[in-house]
Automatic annotation (TrEMBL):
Organism expressing this protein natively: Enterococcus haemoperoxidus ATCC BAA-382
Segments forming domain Nitroreductase: 9-165
Taxonomic placement: Bacteria, Bacillati, Bacillota, Bacilli, Lactobacillales
GO molecular function, one term: oxidoreductase activity
PROSITE patterns listed in its UniProt record: EF_HAND_1
Protein name per its UniProtKB record: Nitroreductase domain-containing protein
Length: 241
């Protein structure tokens, strides 16, 4: 097995970091360069990355997300932003219309591009002997974060990435059984027993932060009334009607 495949297959989320560890400029630049080389639809690169090193800003982010103290304790925190402001500038320069609020497609493009850049950053960090964890809960405070970081219109915070030197060894988390995820040529039906099997696998894995069975967690999540926080933010940012 080559080193890249090994890193991909053994990646784990880390939330406990050495607070005294600092990334070198070269390491940070290598991670950012790797992120920017991610695949992008039509080479549109519909995202921006905010490198947050300022302690006061990171403290504020933790106040809004108290369950994610690693945003302060890691060596650096990267915020990935869906960015359709850049192409608005392009449209203005070409004196063409910019009706991106009429379809969800531009939002999907920006989200996908940002997610691909994020994954490149994750793997680059792992290759340097560092650890990371993705933070999706920042969307709950997208309005406040947009104001705090002076994000222009047509942009929206998507997710963050805490990077640092791990101080707690984490186990590789089991994934769903392959037949429930991988299909060849056509979508292949599978028995619900595969989900039950995964429930048992995760219970045996015994992750302390999980308080519910895997299936119950997502049954509850999708049964709850949507908060519509992201929808409201996208309308506010001029991205949805």
């Amino acid at each position: 097995m080559n080193k890249t495949i090994e890193i991909l297959q053994t990646r784990r989320s880390h939330r406990d970091f050495d607070e005294n560890h600092r990334l070198s400029k070269e390491e940070l630049q290598a991670i950012l360069d790797a992120a920017r080389q991610a695949p992008s639809w039509m080479n549109g690169q519909f995202y921006s990355i905010i490198v947050i090193q300022d302690e006061k800003i990171r403290e504020q982010l933790v106040k809004w997300n108290p369950g994610n103290a690693h945003m302060m304790k890691g060596s650096v925190f990267l915020l990935f932003v869906g960015d359709l402001y850049r192409t608005k500038m392009v449209s203005s320069a070409h004196e063409s219309s910019y009706s991106i609020d009429e379809s969800i497609e531009p939002i999907i493009l920006a989200t996908t591009d940002a997610a691909l850049a994020l994954e490149n950053a994750v793997i680059a960090a792992e290759s340097l002997g560092l650890g990371s964890v993705v933070v999706g809960s920042i969307r709950k405070h997208g309005k406040e974060i947009s104001q705090l970081l002076d994000l222009p219109e047509k942009t929206f915070p998507l997710f963050g990435l805490s990077i640092g030197k791990p101080i707690v060894e984490m186990k590789v988390k089991p994934r769903l059984p392959e037949p429930a995820v991988i299909h060849y040529d056509k979508y292949q039906p599978y028995a619900y027993t595969l989900i039950e099997q995964y429930n048992q696998t995760m219970e045996a894995f015994g992750e302390a932060r999980e308080t519910k069975r895997w299936s119950q967690k997502f049954s509850d999540y999708f049964a709850a009334k949507p908060q519509m926080i992201t929808d409201q933010l996208l309308r506010m940012r001029g991205l949805l009607k």
